[in-house]
Specification:
This protein is an alpha/beta fold and about 450 residues long. It has eleven helices and 20 strands. Strand 12 and strand 13 form a beta hairpin.
Length: about 450
């Protein structure tokens, strides 16, 4: 049993799911096994539900049920029900089509499945088990069975890989996952049901299972490698924002030069290349730019046009350089009709939020200065510690300092397959503001 403070109890009663270590009453250090199910009570010992306990994370417990004293067997039954429900929801919100065959299947707390994330890229599914209570063989088996039953039908290919987040794995002190895929339909080793799979142990044949694929977003082709890249992949949360940005830039009539800062795998750049005469994608990672160039090659019409290029550079240094050149010239010489800012999360914690805001302010100020009259700014933040209100205020301040008129055309968030829960502000992490600058 974990007894928590009144503040933490109120938070859980209001719909949140996390108990921080500082929320434990009298700084309890219970003798619980890593990942154990534990009943949470308030200071009066009134039970609030059952949570998965972590011995190492600052999030000491994640509520998985409002029912106290839940057994492991009961948790696994509820787990299967929730995974199945998440997959049904994705079928409604983001159905697989020829133009879009990649989406997020499971979004942790947003699907009432704390510590579990799964993304689909065509015939590959990437699973992340992010807590001591979920990085367990029984959880792997339940999720794998649900995914298999949902997708490995009618001869469709499917391979499921578990891919831990290195930073989370260190924080949670998780062991390495079992080698090989969790499930595959494409190896030589065939189970009695006609499907190949591994149940907690490696099979030699499973090593030949595919770990790469090509998938589509908005009709564009992208390459995915389960063994590389950030997190589980390709920023599927921006899928609709990619298409919306291209549509608004096209409608502006200002479609000469576009700049995609922090392009990573080229998502915004390739979408803008469909409507702009010249697009430059900038990233500090050489590996990311190689992936972006590979994605460009997968789209022959864009590749053959020869109007998309890549630059390896630090976002701040590059924009300072361009801004300095423009301000040093005789008269304003703004260079771009569209600029995308899509940096990684600047604020990893509440303590870093203030410095993150300064970083966002600088990037947006320089981008606004570098836009042509009537140009489009697509500016993003994926830091959940930076609220939409704070991010909008930063953009407002940058517009005032630049002496430019900035119209907010659309305020967007993540694609619907990344649902938000109103009582869990952490699920509203992505902000995408699309603006006209004059």
């Amino acid at each position: 049993m974990l007894r928590i403070t009144r503040r933490a109890s109120d938070r859980l009663r209001n719909g949140h799911l996390w108990v921080y270590r500082t929320d434990l009453e009298a700084q309890q250090q219970p003798l619980l096994a890593p990942g154990a199910l534990v009943t949470i009570t308030d200071s009066r010992e009134i039970p609030l539900g059952t949570a998965l306990y972590s011995t190492s994370s600052q999030i000491a417990a994640r509520l998985v049920s409002r029912t106290p004293s839940l057994s492991r067997a009961q948790y696994l039954v509820e787990l299967r029900q929730r995974v199945d429900a998440a997959l049904v929801l994705r079928h409604t919100l983001a159905p697989i089509t020829a133009a879009n065959n990649a989406h997020r299947l499971i979004f942790s707390e947003a699907d009432n499945l704390p510590g579990i994330v799964a993304d689909r890229y065509n015939d590959l599914v990437l699973l992340q088990l992010l807590t001591q209570g979920t990085a367990q063989d029984d959880v792997r088996a339940v999720i794998t069975d649900s995914l298999r039953d949902a997708f490995a039908t009618s001869g469709h290919s499917l391979t499921i890989w578990e891919r831990p987040d290195p930073r989370i794995r260190e924080l949670e002190q998780l062991a390495a996952p079992p080698p090989g895929p969790l499930f595959t339909t494409t190896t030589d080793s065939v189970a009695p049901n006609g499907l190949s799979f591994r149940s907690g142990v490696q099979r030699d044949a499973a090593q030949r299972a595919p770990s790469t694929t090509t998938f589509t977003l908005n009709g564009l082709h992208f390459y995915y490698d389960a063994a590389s890249g950030q997190k589980t992949g390709a920023f599927l949360d921006q899928r609709i924002n990619y298409a919306t940005a291209a549509r608004i830039v096209a409608a502006s009539g200002r479609t000469a030069n576009a700049l995609d800062v922090c392009t990573y795998q080229g998502g915004f750049a390739l979408h803008l290349a469909q409507v702009c005469s010249q697009v430059t994608g900038v990233d500090t990672s050489h590996t990311a730019l190689e992936a972006a160039d590979r994605n460009l090659a997968l789209n022959p019409k864009l590749a053959d046009a020869g109007t998309t290029d890549w630059m390896e550079a630090d976002a701040f240094d590059y924009l300072r350089h361009l801004d300095g050149e423009s301000r040093a010239s005789s008269g304003p010489q703004h260079r771009f009709d569209a600029i995308v800012l899509d940096p990684p999360a600047f604020a990893k914690s509440k303590r870093s939020a203030e410095s993150a805001l300064r970083g966002y302010k600088e990037l947006n100020l320089r981008a606004i200065r570098l836009l042509n009259e009537g140009g489009t700014l697509i500016t993003n933040s994926c830091s959940h510690h930076v609220s939409l209100a704070d991010f909008t205020d930063i953009l407002t301040s940058a517009a005032a300092d630049a002496g430019r008129r900035v119209q907010l055309l659309e305020s967007r968030s993540a694609a619907p397959d990344h649902p938000e829960v109103l009582t869990l502000p952490e699920t509203r992490y992505l902000k995408c503001l699309i603006c006209r600058v004059s």
